[in-house]
Specification:
The protein has 596 residues and is of the alpha+beta class. The protein is built from 13 helices and 18 strands. It has a 6-stranded antiparallel beta sheet. A 5-stranded antiparallel beta sheet has the order 2-1-5-4-3.
Length: 596
Amino acid sequence: MKHLNLRTLLGSLAAAAVIAAAATAGYVAAHAAGMQRLRDAEQNRLDVFVAALNADLSRLAVLPSLLETIPGVFALLDAPADTRLRDEVNRALQGINGIAGAEMLYVLDLSGTARAAADADDPGTPMGADLSFRPYVRAALEGRPGRFYGVGVTSGKPGYYLSYALSRAGRQRGVAAVKVNLEEAEAAWRGWPGEVLLVDEHGVVIMATRARWKFRPLAALTPSEQIEAARTRRYGKATLEPLAWREGQVLDPLARVVDLDGVRRLASSRQLVDNGWQLIVLDDAAPVDASARNAAITAGLGGAALSLLALAGWQRRRAIRRERAHRVLLQAAHDSLETKVTERTAELRNAQNELVHASRMAALGQMSAGMVHELNQPLAAMRTLSDNACVMLNRAAADPGHLEGVQVNLERIANLVDRLGRLTRQLKAFAYRNDAPLVAVDIAHLIAGAQFLVSPRLREHDIEFQQAVSPPGLSALADASRLEQVLVNLMGNAIDAMADAPERVLQVAASGHDGRCIISVSDTGPGIRADMLPRLFEPFATTKPAGSGLGLGLMISANILRDLGGTLQASNLPGRGARFVIELPDAERPGDHDKP
């Protein structure tokens, strides 16, 4: 009897251990999978938000430089008391801003005082205000482009400011500034799941889906940061009280669990280029925890089912009738569990497919909006430049000196036309679908063709071209025209990177290895910035100045190679320079079929 009780006790302990282990494993696996799905969804949202925000921040970057072409701007800076000139420039600024759609457009003299503005007749206009203490004004007065986000001194409204030094005859005469309203982007975030924060370089929230989080730092500011904020009036009258933000488990470099306002959330972040800002997407972790608990219960029931099976086997020797009854119960429990697991899996897959579909559609919409902005800005600038050229041509009859201004405007129009051409070529390449069969492409011949296309730029920048193909008859399985397009794009980027390099060598090498064809394009430029390497093949990621490119070339090249069954990777060379490596299937050479 005692032996039977001991066996019963041991069996009960073993069953409890199995159930506990199954529940723990189910919880851990379900929680990890739920967090991964949440991270993937947040990364999709970050792709959309970052692309839209970068487009908003850069679309009006060329606007301040157009003010150099407005008749009367420099005359007003020489005679700021002339009310007729001031009214004339105010009207011109109002007309340009009506096309561009900026929140504010204004001109300041060398003392930092606003002398003309597009909203001169509206309340909160900066007209007459001394803004020399603002960082973006100081930067422009020092001859550098200014970038600044802060609360308006006169309007009390936050915005993103860009400034540009106005110069003539080699001498700085004043400052042009434009204010971009980002409230539409902030409002668009509220239509997505979760919460969004935009944190500036000081760790202060400057945009958020919840108003009570704005202008509050994630951690208390240092005394020097508080002094700088008060001096520049960056955050207006905000008290800068820190948020109830506490960081917890780090899942990866861009995702961690945080506690905000007493709610446990998953936070994924993305660093914005050049300005030190950080975009953070937050989701409540409670649904993931609840799902993991449900999975633990389900797994525990599964463990219990296994224990019952063992118990049924043990009792089978004692009574056939009891064993049959237990078998029926266990089968019913198993069927119920299997049905629940199947239904839950189907629900999760449907939810995931719907979220991915929504993210893709939103990304397409955001990219379309970005393209519209990219087209509208050069068109507006061309309209202004052409109108000014007509005015100067009329005045040239009396004063031939105006012909120089006409030439300058026409050159700027030509540059804008080139920019539109680059944009449409990139869009055509992005939309083009080629279903032609892949054939053996001679790599040496392909490199020679790409070199011929970029040879004028090689001569223009005095760049030495080196080519090495081993073996000489190396070939790859590809589409010749699309592969040549990728090579021309990579070689063009290398030429741009070496524009100011002391040593200019462009090297293209190709070799075969383990059934793969490897092509490398190397330059002696400054290399790729560390912060750009992880996102080099994302849309709109570029280190070129505003107006010089959309950041679509490398993304399109990577997509082309992926269609061809290949890959594209980038790295920095030791010392100086960058290297892009193409890897494609090696084409089967003649005679290979005859080998044993």
